[in-house]
């Protein structure tokens, strides 16, 4: 299809919600309106695509949402979209609304679904990386990551008060699925004693020695940040392995959990989301398809869905080293 033919697009949010998704939606709808495209919002991601929950969206429909967390379009994890029958039903609805292209705001699962679907049904997609996990290759940051890290740091600041008062050891678990970005950035930003992430080997003897030495040196409390995807079973798994030896520090486990997914997006996330939403429509108008937009070194870029999903994005090892040096 000649990309100049694009007249009607659909946009949806999918997978875990992330603060800033609304800002991205706003940017998509307004950039599209500016280019005289008709926009349909699909509710609850791929689920709504299968059920035909489409609604026309105009400039005013995205007023007063830039500051709101979550996603006004709602989201879902769709088992039905994993089946060819579910996807065929979704394609049928897109055809009935005469949709020429889709913009998907989501994470690696969403991009996988978009790739499979566009290959099967020949519908162009552009992806916008929206996930708190920051686990997508091709962009320095994903929408929602900065807000989630800020929320986690706020929580650790509060835990410090009680940890300090009782001279205790806290193991704080943060989200990130299989990735340690949230944990590492939270640890650095909160001045934690140590951080345990799936991307770096964990030596429990070293950890115990550091904590004991800190105590001997007069450090009255310790906070260790643990990524939920840590192979030893997250914060609870680590606590189980060290609690006998460090019983005098009364180890406590705190799982921050879904708190990290909520709240107003930070300025950085609003700006990132606005730039990526705007770029997604521009790239579609330029004839690009089946790529995701990203920002690398402050510049807008595109990358294939395959790269986004399969190429490894790991926290820089220099940052991991720095975190341990700054915790001495
Ligand atoms: N291999 C796949 N084929 C088809 N759809 C998929 C596939 N993988 C993921 N999806 C769809 O993408 C949705 C969102 O993915 P999920 O991993 O839950 O969140 P995220 O996009 O935030 O990583 C899934 O619920 C599913 O409907
Ligand atoms: O909200 P759920 O379905 O319990 O899923 C929790 C997972 O979602 C996340 O918060 C976000 O992941 P996605 O963006 O890939 O959906 C992960 O950090 C966490 O492991
Ligand atoms: Mg994901």
Give a structural overview:
By secondary structure, the chain is of the alpha/beta class. It folds into two domains: 3-144 and 265-310, Rossmann fold, CATH 3.40.50; 148-262, Rossmann fold (3-Layer(aba) Sandwich). Helices cover 42% and strands 17% of the residues. The protein contains eleven helices and eleven strands. It has helices at residues 21-34, 45-51, 84-96, 108-121, 145-166, 181-190, 204-216, 234-242, 267-285, 305-310, 317-326, and strands at residues 8-13, 38-42, 54-57, 101-106, 125-129, 169-174, 194-196, 222-227, 252-255, 291-296, 299-304. The protein has a seven-stranded mixed β-sheet with strand order 3-2-1-4-5-10-11, with helices on both faces. Strands 7-8-6-9 form a four-stranded parallel β-sheet, with helices on both faces. Helix 7 links the parallel strand 7 and strand 8. Helix 1 (21-34) runs parallel beside helix 9 and helix 2 (45-51) packs across helix 3 (84-96). 48% of the residues are buried. The structure holds adenosine-5'-diphosphate, 1,6-di-O-phosphono-beta-D-fructofuranose (FBP) and magnesium ion. 1,6-di-O-phosphono-beta-D-fructofuranose binds at residues 15-16, 107, 109, 131-133, 175-177, 228, 261. It comes from Neolewinella antarctica. Pathway: Carbohydrate degradation; glycolysis; D-glyceraldehyde 3-phosphate and glycerone phosphate from D-glucose: step 3/4. ADP binds at residues 26-30, 160, 217, 219-221. InterPro entries: ATP_PFK, ATP_PFK_prok-type, PFKA_ATP_prok, Phosphofructokinase_CS, Phosphofructokinase_dom, PKF_sf. One of its GO terms (molecular function) is 6-phosphofructokinase activity.
